[in-house]
Specification:
Helix content: 40-55%
Number of strands: 4
CATH class: Alpha Beta
CATH topology: NADH Oxidase
Radius of gyration: 18 Å
CATH architecture: 3-Layer(aba) Sandwich
Order of helices and strands: HHEHHHEHEHEH
Largest sheet: 4 strands, antiparallel
Strand order of the largest sheet: 1-2-4-3
Number of helices: 8
Oligomer: single chain
Length: 226
């Protein structure tokens, strides 16, 4: 296989996996994924990313705290940054609705079924049963350019994981519940929790993992100028 084909395969096979096996991921593999991912570009080489990797007992403590916060309001959601606009316009609104109902359709969740929607959303805070939960953190003194750099770093992590037969799910859902896990994962006062990410081996028997989202045609988002 050509090098371009290997890279293309890792990128195009990346999906947000929402059900994982409990198969452990060797720490040496996690270390290598993060090491190679740190080659992501950043303005003036600031490298404005920090990663906290949770497994074992710490992962369980994180999940317990987050599930409790989400379920009983012991730590209410607190916005640290705006991921979404206050109002979605087209074509973004239609794309958002389509993927949401596609997932719920696979899971047999009907419109208005609040209990099942709540239960499915809560699975975010279990890292979808993945054996590795990662938190991506940025210094709140950095500006939007560094957030862009951070995103490129996270994409590298997901692609490098695919190259090793692993899967991921990036999760902005963790950010509003940062207070529930701050002490457990040792965040500093200037740390902002950007997102969580589940890492592990996909459960190929899980119906939710059959979801493959669509991508718009090239001509819809690219302009070539001679």
């Amino acid at each position: 296989m050509k090098e371009a084909d290997i890279v293309d395969s890792a990128i195009s096979s990346r999906r947000s996996i929402r059900a994982f096996l409990d198969t452990p991921v060797p720490q040496k593999d996690i270390e290598q994924i993060l090491k190679v991912s740190s080659r992501a570009p950043s303005g003036t080489n600031t490298q404005p990313w920090k990663v906290i990797v949770c497994t074992g007992d710490t992962l369980q403590k994180v999940k317990d705290a987050a599930v409790a916060a989400f379920s009983d309001g012991s730590f209410g959601p607190e916005q640290t940054y705006k991921y979404y606009p206050d109002k979605f316009e087209e074509p973004y609104l239609s794309r958002r609705r389509k993927v949401g109902w596609a997932l719920y359709g696979l899971l047999g969740i009907k419109k208005g079924d609040g209990d099942k929607m709540f239960a499915q959303h809560k699975r975010n805070y279990l890292f979808f049963d993945a054996p590795v939960g990662m938190f991506f953190v940025i210094d709140d003194r950095m500006e939007i350019g560094s957030w862009l750099d951070h995103g490129m770093f996270m994409e590298n992590v997901m692609v490098a994981a695919r190259g090793r037969g692993l899967d991921t799910c990036p999760q902005a859902a963790w950010a509003p519940y940062h207070r529930a896990v701050r002490d457990i994962i040792g965040l500093d006062e200037t740390d902002v929790l950007v997102a969580g990410m589940a890492l592990g081996y996909a459960d190929t028997e899980a119906i939710e993992n059959t979801l493959v989202t669509e991508r718009t045609a090239l001509e819809d988002f690219v302009t070539f100028l001679d």
